[in-house]
Amino acid sequence: MPESELPDDVRSLLHGTDGSESVLVDGRRMMAPRGGPGRALPIGQDGFLAQVFARRYGSTARAVRAIRAAIFEALEENSIGARALRPDSVLGRAVGTALPIAQGPMTRVSDQASFAASVAHHGALPFVALALSGPDQSRALLTETKQVVGDRPWGVGVLGFAPEEVRRAQWEVIHELRPSAVIVAGGRPGQAQAQALEAAGIQAFLHVPSPGLLRQFLDAGSRKFVFEGAECGGHVGPRASFPLWEAQIGVLLEYLQERSADVDLGAALRSISPAAFTTPGLPRWSRRRRHRWPPAVPGSAYSWAAHTFSPRRQ
To answer: Cβ distance 66 to 51 under 8 Å?
Structure first.
């Protein structure tokens, strides 16, 4: 900000960062200049917001007022975030569920049809995990899941980086049994997986852990994503949820303009309702995309999922 009295080397570091330069050193987040000498500074992954805020608000006073307004807006009873997490929300209707909540695929947890049935019964969107399952195991799991879930929506989680023969066999089963949705973790922008699924009437969501990769996926024509922070576990990138979401929303606002997209924000155990409490990026996103709002995806909430969706809690 213009009022800042930071030394020039610190200003230069903050001006050129995208957050990925922040690394853990003895338990502390530190950032040092890329490819050259310079001192490491205690700056976290959200350090890139310094240049974003300077460009967006122009002064510290305007930035503080914007953050304050976003907090009070989120606390309103009928706020954007509150409406996003209520039954019969816009995105819940888009994926066919009563609640805007998706249970992320978890190997050795959500690879059982009974688990998916319980999630679906309670109004959320379940995803069974195929991992490296072969064709027979994949067909058995998807067939049973389709039977026990019934006419409720359900999905499948696959690995975009699995060996070619494994991927090919799983895709054949998926196209045969036609789940409502598929989450692809570790896919590449050049792969035509998402487009083929969408063409077959199956919603395809892609894990995208960085702003640079998101731009590539957008250029390749993808429009449905999962942004899952590093604390979630599983196939995630280095960024924690809050700085990741803010960075990705910035890319979407810059890139999409009048286009549309569906976005899931991956959330860990203690962030089941992140959409209502994030930094000002989410209200800005929703105002630009009034017909879409991201649901919560508890990506690694093993104990939470088992507790919440237990039939004993009906």
So the answer is: no
Q: Is residue 196 part of a domain?
A: yes
What pLDDT is attached to residue 293?
A: 37
What are the tokens at 189?
């922008």
253-287 residue pLDDT tens: 887 665 655 555 554 322 333 333 344 454 555 55
Question: Which long-range contacts link 47-52 to residues 24+ away (Cβ below 8 Å)?
Answer: 47/14, 47/17, 47/19, 47/21, 47/22, 48/14, 48/17, 48/18, 48/19, 48/243, 48/247, 49/243, 49/246, 49/279, 50/14, 50/15, 51/14, 51/15, 51/17, 52/246, 52/250
Largest CA-CA distance found in the chain, in angstroms, rounded: 64
Q: Are 156 and 183 in contact (CB under 8 A)?
A: yes
Q: Classify residue 150 as exposed, middle or buried by CB count within 10 Å of its CB (0-12, 13-18, 19+).
A: exposed
How far are the Cα atoms of 105, 203, 285 from residue 175, in angstroms, in the given order?
A: 18, 12, 33
Range of the domain at 270: 86-313
| 306 shares a domain with 261 | yes
- Write down the pTM of the prediction: 0.79
Q: What is the pLDDT of residue 307?
A: 34
Q: What is the pLDDT of residues 33-81, one digit of tens each?
A: 776 667 788 999 999 999 989 998 999 999 999 999 988 887 887 777 7
Residue 120 burial (CB < 10 Å; 0-12/13-18/19+)? buried
Beta partners for residue 273, in sequence order: none
**CA distances for 191 relative to 135, 187, 195, 206, 228, angstroms:** 21, 7, 9, 11, 20
User: Is 134 a residue whose pLDDT tops 80?
Assistant: yes
The CATH number for 154's domain is 3.20.20.70
Structure tokens at 8: 């020039």
Encoded tokens for 105: 């695929």
Sign of the dihedral through C-alpha 16, 20, 18, 52: negative
Identify whether residues 70 and 161 lie together within a single domain.
no
